[in-house]
Amino acid sequence: MAKIKGTLKVLLWKHLIVRFRRFIHTPIEIISPAILFIILFSFKEYLLVPSSKYRDEFNIQQNEPVELNSVIGPHSIFYTPETHLTSLLMNRIENSLAYQDKYTNAIKKPKITPAINEEELQKFAKEIEDNVAFIIFQNISGTWPDKLTYTIRMKKHFKTYSFRSSSDQLGSHEHFGTIYEPFMKLQWAIDSNYLELLTGKIITQRVTLQEFPYVRTKEDQTAKQISGILKGLCFLSLMLVFVFLMARLLEERISGIQELIKMVGVSNNILGVSHVLNVVPAGLVYSVLTTILLTVSSQPVLPNANPLLIFIMLVLHYMTVIALAFCSSYIVNNTQYTETLAVLAYVLLYLPGHLVQSRELPRWTLPLTGLLPHLPMYWFWDEVAALQQYGVGLSFVYITSSHTSTGCSVLACYLCLILQACLFFGVAWYLAKVRPGPYGQALPWNFLFQKKYWSKKRVTPEDYEELEDLKNTTDDPQYFEAAPKDMEVGIKIVNVSKVFSNQRALSEVTLNVYKGEITVLLGHNGAGKTTLMSIITGMLKATEGNVYVEGLETVTQRDEMQKILGLCPQHNLFFPDLTVLEHVKFFTMLKGVSYTEATNSSRALVEQLGLADRSSYKSSQLSGGMKRRLQLACALAGDAKVLVLDEPTSGLDVETRRGLWDLLLSLRGSRTVLLSTHFMEEAEALGDRVAALHAGRLRCHATTMHLKRALGECHGDGTVRYGTVGARRPSALPRDHHAPQARAR
């Protein structure tokens, strides 16, 4: 835990420096989310004009029951089938539904029309008016049945899609009579006349209707306007935060600096947490300022709402947007048009929730739809508007119940936002494993279900002996020298092959790099040196074979392996906002060194590499050779047990290169060093052992003395033949044309 805290402090120290260096970008990112709410507050008197009215729903406020006989039924009725009994019944129904016209006082009867069959009725179903009804009799044939079965179809909107009681909402509920009264009038006419025909007795049953009355209420007409405005502001205000964070994450991943940080033992989880903590202060400023503008000012936009509940929602929604930015940063693997892609992604992720927000869905779908981006925020503001509409205001009393037909309670909104953040961060963690970028090592999509991902097996000496049997037994002893049995292996490469598309970059490479020695890897461009080093450091995954660093497998135990590894990549990877000294201090402190000690050791290392007079320069201000020195300094920072240096002296002048040799030679005996180079002179000066690659195959691995005895003194350029006739390669160890004892095989 202490190491995690220390690592987070170092990462946040780096983020803080970047914040100060970007003195224009940082204020915009912090203040921009609240700017729209400041504008709303400034012009609220013009945008939100107070307006209210009393809501009346006809006879909902009446206590007296309504006689069903006084209700008017459908004006036109179609029925099927047409038989003697159905015609007799419909004639009686026609008389029962007669009504007096309120304008002419004339007695009117509904129009009764028989239909041939049900299919004929279906043709007119889409064209009928609201006051038309269809009756389909199911079981009337030659005699009256004991139980009459029939179907009534009307165009009235009976709200059968609604899964909730309308009485749960605040204010007056709707007057259902205008919808259900004609239907009930027709139903009672059919039932009563059928019973009279069946029994021969007159039905005198009195039927009345009575809806539950509701007190007359006053509605705030601006509440819904406020809700719509706040939804839009919450969406738009966080767009820049999303775009800036997504761009930073994408740039760090594509540039390779993220993988370089991982090489010094920082896990992807800790790196992600540092980015979250970097944007949390801006989120708190946005949430606090917005809450004050909406609830605590002299003339608040939401005068009756609890400020704490508003603040909680703003913070949770901010965190879901941050999590969404993490996910979206893995959409592409290049930095072209980053800002445009970020805006497009933000808008596209907004659309599903926007399309669903106004629809009334079954309750069982709420946990699923609640995971759509921004949708819980919409539901929250709908709840606020529903309460504000009747002067109640959002408070802890109402957070467990829903007052709208399309959303859920405030507490459910909070839970959905929390689940969203967890889900999006989880997806981002998964994508970081399967889409790490051009410099990372991608795991298979189903790695979570593979046993080897969860295993932490350490390779034992017995395993080494077993793996050694896999080594090609046909190695020529002239080019391959057996090591003493008591030597410990620092890096073990076992039958490693790597295929890119249809090109084989490495083919069955087996190599031991011993502790306390400097092993030099030789080979011309395209020989496979960088590919092999990328596999060793975990930046690439081997197509076949395994690599072990200090007994740790580089795929399944990558996080543990990277804590003991220092890497100087072939390409320079730097933070654009840090100076030379800050780069070295950063990587030194990641090794657990205190700030004071890191400052002193970094200055000494910078001076040793000839960078003292440029310690305050940014990496972009350095020449090519200076950048290689800085990259080497980052690899040497701290106390890595294993160093992998990919052409560390490339681009350096002779004097600086000689000084660097002395530095590397001082590491002999204390660290395991694997170094690649083009220079034979450098290999002879530094290497305890030399390994040569050509066309992806290991051609030799021995001490320099062994190779000298086998090939003679090597100072010029030439070629060496070996193996079968015609197998020719540029010699990594060229023979001296003046040495008569040098021979080619």
A few lines on this structure:
The protein is built from 25 helices and 22 strands.
Describe the 3D structure.
The protein is α/β, with parallel strands linked by helices and 745 residues long. The protein has three domains: 2-46 and 220-434, no CATH class; 59-215, no CATH class; 486-730, 3-Layer(aba) Sandwich (Rossmann fold), CATH 3.40.50.300. The chain has 25 helices and 22 strands. The chain has a six-stranded mixed beta sheet, sandwiched between helices. A hairpin with a 6-residue loop joins β21 and β22 (728-730). The longest helix has 29 residues, at 268-296. The two termini are 58 Å apart. The model is unreliable at 457-464, 469-474 and 714-745 (pLDDT under 50). The chain crosses the membrane at residues 23-43, 229-250, 270-296, 308-333, 340-358, 378-399, 411-432. It is found in: Membrane. Belongs to the ABC transporter superfamily. ABCA family.
Helix count from the secondary structure assignment: 25
The main pleated sheet reads as:
6 strands, mixed
Amino-to-carboxy terminus distance:
58 Å
Which segments are poorly predicted (pLDDT under 50) over 5 or more consecutive residues? 457-464, 469-474, 714-745
Mean pLDDT: 82
Structural domain tally: 3
What proportion of the residues form beta strands (DSSP E)?
5-15%
Please state the structural category: alpha/beta
The helix content is 40-55%
Number of E-type strands: 22
Strand order of the largest sheet: 16-17-18-13-19-20
Radius of gyration: 40 Å
Gross morphology = elongated
